[in-house]
Amino acid sequence: MRTSQSDKLRRYLASLQELHQEKTELEARLEKINEALAGAPGARARQGGRAAARRGGGGRRRNGLSLRAAVTQVTKSRPLTKPEILQAVQKIGYKFATKDPMNSLNAMLYAPANKFRNKNGKFGPR
Questions:
Q1: What is the DSSP string of 98-126?
Q2: Rounded Cα gap, residues 11 and 16, in angstroms
Q3: What would the mean pLDDT of 31-42 be, rounded to a whole number?
């Protein structure tokens, strides 16, 4: 009886390992296909809306400037509140790829590796 259970467990683990290996190979192949299609004529039209933005970080490409760089730029002269920062980065041309840009700003400002100091609700570079 024990032999049977241990054999089942070994087969299960081997099967699981094979599935992980196959998944890795398929992901690598899919990445190569995506790279090949990215250079094809009309590739942007085929990518679609939301999925393309999620995969490629569409907002950053359009802006040519990261959100962190935009916030650094607008706060370098004086600290600003979050609503002031949001308005200022939009004024310099930063386009958010989300319906609620304040969420993106909050995530960046409060991230563990952030480069901004919060003093009495006003943020500025460290």
A1: SS-HHHHHHHHHTSTT--EEEETTEEEE-
A2: 8
A3: 76
Q: What is the pLDDT confidence band of residue 20, given thresholds at 50, 70 and 90?
A: confident
CA-CA-CA-CA torsion sign (5, 8, 14, 18): negative
Q: Give the DSSP per-residue string, 48-101.
A: -SHHHHHHHTHHHHHHSS-HHHHHHHHHSSS-B-HHHHHHHHHHTT---SSS-H
Mean pLDDT of 20-35: 82
pTM for the model stands at 0.52
- Give the CA distances from residue 120 to residues 44, 79, 81, in Å, rounded to whole numbers and listed in that order: 44, 10, 9
